[in-house]
Amino acid sequence: MSRVVPHPVPWALLVLLAAPSVGAAPLELVATGQFRVYAKGSVVPEARVYRTIDPPAAFLLETPLFDRPVYVTTAPRSARLIDPARCIPDVEDKDVLRLDASGPQEAFFAVHVEGPRLVMERDGVTLALAPSPPVLGERTLGELLAQLPEYRRGAARYTPDRRALDTLRAVGEPTEILVFFGSWCPHCERAVPRLIRVLEDIATTPITATFHGVPPESDLPDPEAERYGVTALPLAVVCRHGQELARLSGEHWETPERRLAAVLRPTAR
Amino acid sequence: MTPPRDAASSGRALVAIGSTAGRLLGAVLVIAAWAKAVDPQAFAAEVSTLLPAAGVLALPLAVAAIAFETGLGTALLLGWCQRAILLLVSLTFAVFTAIALGHVLGGDSTRNCGCFGQLLERTPAQALLENVAFLALSALAWTGRAPGRMPRRPWLPPLAATVAAAFAVAAPRLPLDDIATGLAPGMPVARTRLDEIVPELATGRHLLVLLDRRSPDASAQVATLNERLRLPGGPLRVWGIAADDPEMAAAFLWTAGPAFEIRSGPANLLRRLYRVLPRSALVENGRIVRTWTGLPSEQALDALGRGDLP
Fold it and tell me: Could you tell me if A9 and A120 lie in one domain?
């Protein structure tokens, strides 16, 4: 599945004609942990990857290998260096930036696909953009947010129900929440940050959470997820003194604080 | 001392119970066979999972199993209760029970049982209980055992088996998707569980396209959707849905360049919603209003692209 794209002039013309971003409103991109940059077969740890929030997918890569960011589009497929002045960080959210992709359409890479990797070559340097391996096993909230910064953005944009939060703030007994999620699962990306926001807002209470990353279905099964009978993601298991009290699944994720408040209300003072 | 008349009447009651049990099992076998016949490829996939060595013979084996179940079920519905028939029934349900037990012992609690095709969704534990009950019923059917005389209408079970086999072979080309799958007009999206993958379907108008990212035609299908629906933008939200596979998802993103979002879902959840891929559905305010085998026609896509209903 490897197709080399001619470099650079015909492709540049095509992008000029077809790229939706030309002359359009700035694109909003968010930092993502779901893709990584590779060079010479290894991860580039200093690289930062941003992706568009709305389709079609586009990426901005900040890597030490080039003095300018790399702008990658998928429809049509292209990669080019872009003027850093066109990337404006959000003043309130360091994980968000706005990109003006208009201006000179130049400094293109030769691009081809190798399985899950988009390989880009320019000036003797070869980069690849590929999905990160799934986040597996137990993670604290801090570890989770470090690995999946897009969750932080989702959490910041959610406004929990204040009355439910007040109920939860009154909880005095230690309560543990085990959250099963898939870092590869788009529904988790929408739902789990809501719970994260709730947990941040009730951080002073004895309600604590652990996050458990589950592999995709095509990979090996997860014994912990099987032990809890996880059939759909995300799933949160609410426990107290080692006893399961309730679960959050399906529509509970629309307003997780309300479900938690309903479950924990009897013990609130 | 019990009078002989009572003994005779209790004997008749036992025969009646046995005969009823036999007819019940006949109905179960015929329903199960026809539920599988509407989507023989799905059943062939089950056969392949069970018998990996079957290879290209999985589909013929699946068709043969459908014919066998139909023939046996028809014989039981006709009231045939000869020793050979009862032996076949008991053996059949013993095999089904053993398969269900294997799935339970295999430890995969999420696997769907395919005994009734895509008609019923059950866990292996539920399927095991059900098959144990059927096995018990087949034991009860022995009380209705009839002497080995020539049964009535001996041509009917072979005819039913032949018709079932012919139907199974033709079914993929027949317009039966709305009957054979869980995705049909009028159905709330929540019943399909697609709302777990795309919660946004609850409000507004959406076009859903179930895709096979491994298909060599998938890129061309994406290009058609991008072009005809004037994506990105346009009046309609479009969602692709495909089986979970992050590496395949990335490769497809680079090669096909979808101008709409493609979300992943569990393969066993999606398998109940199509017979062949792609399959499309128009959703309005959380309810399916129209389905298409494949993509909507170009005229339908153009209408949707204009914001009209096709």
Answer: yes
3-state secondary structure of A107: coil
- A180 shares a domain with A120: no
Domain boundary among A131, A153, A186: A131
Q: For residue B254, is pLDDT > 80?
A: yes
Question: Which of B197, B224, B226, B254 should one mutate to test binding to chain A, selecting the residue with the greatest count of A CBs within 10 A?
Answer: B254
Domain residues for the domain of A9 are 2-131
> In angstroms, rounded to a whole number, what is the distance separating the alpha carbons of residues A245 and A241?
10
- Residue among B109, B246, B250 whose CB faces A226 most closely: B109
Domain boundary among A97, A131, A165: A131
C-alpha to C-alpha distances, B144 to B20, B22, B79, B87, B157, nearest whole angstrom: 8, 8, 9, 13, 19
Q: For testing the chain A interface, which of B196, B221, B239, B253 should be mutated: the one with the most A CBs within 10 Å? A: B253
- Using the Cβ of B244 and the Cβ atoms of chain A, whether some distance falls under 8 Å is answered with yes
pTM, entire model: 0.73
Considering CB atoms only, which of A77, A134, A254 is closest to B254?
Answer: A77
B108 CB neighbours in chain A (<8 A) are 221
| Nearest CA among A55, A38, A57 for reference residue A47 | A38
If asked whether residues A125 and A214 sit together in one domain, one would say no
Q: Work out the angle between the directed axes of helices B298-306 and B218-228 (0-180°, nearest 10).
A: 40
B115–chain A nearest CA distance, Å: 20
CB contact under 8 A, B253 and A187: no
Same domain assignment for residues A18 and A59: yes
Question: Which CATH number goes with the domain that contains A199?
Answer: 3.40.30.10
Same domain flag for A106 and A155: no
Q: Is there a cis peptide before residue B278, judged by omega within 30 degrees of 0?
A: yes
DSSP letters for B264-292: EE-HHHHHTT-SSS-EEEEEETTEEEEEE
Report the domain count for chain A: 2
B84 pLDDT above the threshold of 70: yes
Q: Which range, of A15-24, A61-70, B300-309, averages the lowest pLDDT? A: A15-24
| Separation CA A191–CA B65 (nearest Å) | 44
